[in-house]
């Protein structure tokens, strides 16, 4: 995944902060997954009480992490199609210019 992104963007990857954020989220999920699986594996191998429950928990977390990683990957791959970076840039510039939340209260009278 990261190789494809580097091939696509090259040196300008540093300006694609949302893509880098997505890659960081994927790396975090993988790290969590490795830690959970390592703990469950050790508990099972040395015969810790309730190791079978740890295996079920690890399986659940692994399935959740897989879905989240797939979702993050799809967001990264499709980021140019849905123009996510441009939308986030417009929103962030508006927040910066207004020095805070820029939307009016919907209950405010306009007449």
Features:
single chain, 111 residues, mainly alpha, 4 helices, 72% helix, 0% strand, flat
Succession of helices and strands: HHHH
Structural shape = flat
Specify Rg, calculated over alpha carbons. Answer: 21 Å
Q: Per DSSP, what share of the residues sits in E-state strands of 2 or more residues?
A: under 5%
How far apart the termini lie comes to 53 Å
- Kindly state the number of beta strands: 0
Describe how the helices and strands are arranged:
Blueprint (H helix, E strand, L loop, with lengths): L1 H8 L7 H30 L4 H27 L6 H15 L13
Helix pairs in contact: 2-3
Folded structure, characterized:
The radius of gyration is 21 Å and the shape is flat. Helix 2 runs antiparallel to helix 3. With 111 residues, the protein is mostly helical. The protein contains four helices and no strands. The longest helix is centred in the first third of the chain and has 30 residues, at 17-46. The chain has helices at 2-9, 17-46, 51-77, 84-98. The model has no long low-confidence stretch (mean pLDDT 88).
In brief, what are we looking at here?
This protein is mostly helical and 111 residues long. It has helices at 2-9, 17-46, 51-77, 84-98.
